[in-house]
Amino acid sequence: MRAVREMPFLSLLYTLSSKAAGAWHRFLASPFAQRTGEILKRIAEVGTESYPPDTRRRLKILNLISYLIAITTFLYAIQQSVLDFDTYAPMIAINLALVGTALLVPLAHRINELAGGMLLICAEYAALFGFAAFFSREGGAQLQYIIAAAALFVIFDLKRIRLILALVLLALVLHLYAWFWFPTKGPLSPEEQAAADSLYTQGAITTVILIAASVYYAFSLAERAKAETDAVLRNVLPDAIVERLKANPGIAIADSIEQASVMFADISGFVALTLRLGADKTVELLSRIVSEFDALAVRHGVEKIKTIGDAYMVVAGLPDPAPDHTARLARMALDMLDYIARLRNDTGLPLSIRVGLASGKVTAGVIGTKKFSYDVWGEPVNLASRLEGQAAPGRVLVCPTCHSRLSESFEFESRGPIDIKGIGSQETWYLLRERAPSAQARTDAVIQSDRPRTRTAS
Predict the structure, then answer these.
(1) Which of 46, 95, 356, 380 is most exposed, with minimal Cβ within 10 Å?
(2) What does DSSP say about strands 396-398 and 353-367: parallel, antiparallel, or unpaired?
(3) Each residue's pLDDT tens digit, 431-441
(4) Tens digit of pLDDT for each residue in 352-377?
């Protein structure tokens, strides 16, 4: 019954949270929020224009911290002016001096990358010491020295670890000095106690928020770096290999695959085409072709290994086994020919590719420690490369093993025996097209799809 009574409350809570999220998203999309974001972006970039991206990002964060300190400190000065201007005049002066110093931080970046951070830290340390001396330790100003243990790692680069540790140690010394040398002088009146409690609360809140923000920033940088590293790895290595490397770093990865297929493709007459097009247009054309081949590799579920100039190597059946590995590469090869034909019509360039396809036992693994790569070795690799070299432009030449595996579902034209260096004479065939499904096969497929599925009792 209690769960039933709680349902309306949970439903109301869900509705309110959904409405709040929707309102927040609408606010972020509003012209006001976008203009505000642009203004914040511009003021955050002040003084950072000449620095490299990583340093610039750190200095922009330091600028935003400085602006936040200037705003909150100015509010403290107003608060103290309203409470009792004559009594708090020294503190009002310190606060206004700190506001001015914080606003100078972006300009200090023009000196060097350390100047702004050092200016802010020195001003903060001195101001906090003055606050502790004026309000005694009951005011809690010395608490904010603890922020240095986290904030300094955000303000300065880790390359400055000695400077960071020295400033952290100085903050600890100042915190302890303020605690022991500025005790409360006698009992406080109710008004003084209220003011001290308010200041201590503000100091504690500021300390917790800034430490939490610094730790969050550090973890967000670590997660971003991890994601970027992961993305780079997955652009170089197959996903399955990346997971194995992450699970067992430092362990050599080498696999023997009994059945896999290898395909090489090469642009016919590419050197002459390069001389005709020039460097810029050649790179643009090659990038366009390779990008389309990469998309075809993803579509057909095969693994690109590498490009060497205008040569493109792709495999199927590894690192994840696939029973139809040869058929996958055959379909991709036909799609590659179709794409090159379309590109030839679109550009008017004499483009054509030669393709070689072979199957058999291969070895694969990760080689190197710097600029490492996932590579494949074995007779099918050499054979596919030799077949590509023997193929006519615009044709796909396959080995006997591939022909045997594909003969029922693809059509071929005999090329006859050819002498392949390092292998000897072999019968070869040109791949023409995939056979259309027979009427009986289509009927069987329909029957299979319409047949009711039984569920196994568990």
Answers:
(1) 46
(2) parallel
(3) 999 987 654 44
(4) 999 999 999 998 888 777 767 778 88
